[in-house]
């Protein structure tokens, strides 16, 4: 035996006519055949004996166990000898040291047969040991690559979760190590791509390539078919649209440009736009393309109302307040389970935080009208600094939700929006109104309407493409529809802070 620069032993085969085994052994190095256990099984058949591969602790890695002398194995594992031969009791044994990638210790390949080892059998054992070493090294390299990929993916998710709770300092600190400059921006857009769960890893890789690693690409922890992309640059959206063109089964939803502190809001917008993308021929939609009721309201009055609604949270420490607001915002947009996965906390934590907000606001999130009003306030709150404060907190008559919904522009929007349903002979509008009043419960709505619950669900589902909104899943789409009904007086107004007479939306407010 002679040493090689790559550390592998090398033995030349001289004067051997039967080299068919060599080709068979090389076949095990093909991408479709790289399995150490199969190689050990092949070795046993090739030498017409038994073969086993074990690690330094004696654990069997492949083949059938061959009885070995413990001291001899210890010498081979320690490197004191590279190989050994033994014969007796009608058995012939060859033991070869197999190098394993650090930090693992060496393995032991042993082969036993009833007849002596001729030149062919010896060559087969020697070369098989080399192939096994190559496969172990390749396996470890692939495993290390997968570990690195998982760690990088987990890091991207951690950054997204920090952005979701408005912890921009920590998010930028974490990102700076691997992606310098990625979050050196005040604004960004969030995109959500939806496709088959089996294709998500490939789509995520295509997103990284398309954006030139200048975007935060995250495999959504809540939805198996979703990939979330936070892109600071303007070119990111166009790059992702080109990706949609190359992948027929993928849809794209994008947010309006938002400050990084509003990443959670932008994420909700992207998911909402994703629902619209399913009805678009180009399979893509951006949230800013739609007219939203809050944009039709008096911005100063909206600020005033929001400040009064969320005032009970102002006494909390900044971090606690931001955490509660971000969690509730996501909890209203998605299920508690999905919000928990996105934030990286338990669903019980999400529910506990939302219950605390409920208590502080003196309201009940089980009512869709309350959820819609709270959703409006929470999403307005993030952008309060962008709205000029003309009226002061000392104003004697605070703004009510009814005042916000009474404007000419918002009423025209509501009439036009819900009027799209009037042409359907099934009276989708009546079903939808009753379903909302029942808290989105199809069974209760069916009892009121005198129809089957499945019919209610079919009516609600039938309204989705007409309104271009997701309705059966809670979120901003549904809350816009609820607000439209409130604008037209088709639903009872929500009760906010029922125990505080001075609150503008308290039932005892005079």
Description of the molecule:
With 510 residues, the protein is an alpha+beta fold. The protein has helices at residues 20-27, 36-46, 70-78, 119-164, 168-178, 200-210, 235-246, 263-277, 299-310, 318-333, 336-343, 347-361, 368-382, 401-405, 408-419, 428-437, 442-449, 453-467, 476-487; strands spanning 50-54, 60-63, 83-88, 91-98, 107-113, 187-194, 216-219, 226-231, 251-254, 258-259, 284-286. The strands form 2 sheets. Strands 6, 7, 8, 9, 10 and 11 form a 6-stranded mixed beta sheet that branches. The chain has a 5-stranded antiparallel beta sheet with strand order 2-1-5-4-3. The longest helix has 46 residues, at 119-164.
The proportion of residues in beta strands is 5-15%
Individual helix count: 19
The oligomerization state is single chain
Please write the string of helix (H) and strand (E) elements.
HHEEHEEEHHEHEEHEEHEHHHHHHHHHHH
Query: Which secondary-structure class do the elements indicate?
Result: alpha+beta
Largest sheet: 6 strands, mixed
Poorly predicted ranges (pLDDT <50, ≥5 residues)? 1-17, 385-395, 501-510
Q: State the shape.
A: elongated
């Amino acid at each position: 035996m002679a040493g090689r620069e790559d550390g592998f032993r090398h033995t030349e085969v001289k004067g051997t006519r039967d080299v068919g085994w060599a080709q068979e052994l090389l076949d095990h190095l093909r991408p479709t055949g790289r399995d150490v256990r199969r190689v050990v099984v092949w070795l046993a058949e090739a030498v017409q004996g038994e073969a086993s591969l074990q690690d330094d602790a004696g654990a069997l890695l492949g083949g059938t166990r061959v009885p070995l002398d413990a001291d001899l194995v210890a010498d081979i594992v320690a490197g004191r000898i590279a190989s050994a031969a033994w014969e007796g009791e009608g058995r012939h044994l060859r033991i070869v040291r197999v190098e394993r990638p650090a930090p693992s210790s060496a393995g032991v390949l042993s082969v036993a047969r009833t007849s002596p080892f001729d030149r062919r059998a010896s060559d087969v054992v020697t070369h098989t040991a080399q192939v096994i070493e190559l496969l172990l090294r390749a396996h470890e390299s692939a495993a290390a690559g997968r570990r690195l990929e998982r760690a990088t993916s987990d890091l991207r998710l951690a950054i997204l979760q920090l952005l979701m709770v408005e912890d921009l300092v920590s998010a930028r600190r974490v990102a700076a190590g691997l992606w310098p400059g990625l979050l050196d921006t005040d604004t960004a857009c969030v995109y959500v791509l939806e496709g088959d769960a089996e294709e998500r890893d490939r789509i995520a890789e295509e997103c990284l390539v398309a954006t030139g690693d200048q975007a935060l690409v995250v495999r959504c922890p809540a939805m198996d078919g979703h990939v979330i992309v936070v892109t600071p640059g303007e070119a990111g959206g166009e790059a992702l649209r080109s990706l949609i063109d190359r992948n027929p089964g993928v849809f794209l939803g994008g947010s309006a440009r938002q400050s990084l502190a509003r990443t959670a809001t932008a994420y909700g917008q992207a998911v909402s736009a994703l629902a619209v993308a399913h009805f678009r021929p180009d399979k893509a939609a951006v949230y800013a393309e739609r007219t939203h009721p809050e944009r039709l309201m008096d911005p100063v009055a909206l600020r005033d109302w929001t400040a009064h609604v969320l005032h009970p949270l102002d006494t909390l420490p900044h971090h606690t307040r931001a955490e509660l607001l971000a969690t509730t915002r996501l909890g209203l947009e998605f299920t508690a389970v999905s919000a928990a996965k996105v934030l990286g906390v338990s669903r019980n934590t999400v529910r506990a935080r939302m219950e605390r907000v409920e208590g502080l606001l003196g309201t009940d999130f089980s009512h869709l009208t309350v959820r819609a009003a709270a959703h409006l306030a929470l999403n307005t709150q993030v952008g309060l600094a962008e709205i000029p404060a003309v009226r002061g907190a000392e104003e004697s008559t605070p703004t009510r939700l009814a005042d916000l919904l009474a404007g000419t522009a918002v009423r025209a929007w509501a009439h036009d929006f819900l009027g799209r349903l009037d042409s359907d002979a099934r009276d989708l509008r009546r079903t939808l109104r009753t379903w909302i009043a029942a808290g989105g419960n199809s069974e209760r709505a069916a009892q009121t309407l005198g129809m089957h619950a499945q019919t209610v669900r079919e009516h609600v589902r039938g309204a989705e493409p007409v309104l271009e909104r997701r309705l059966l899943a809670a979120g901003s789409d549904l809350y816009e529809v609820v607000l439209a009904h409130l604008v037209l007086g088709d639903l009872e107004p929500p009760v906010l802070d029922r125990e505080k007479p001075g609150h503008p939306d308290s039932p005892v407010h005079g």
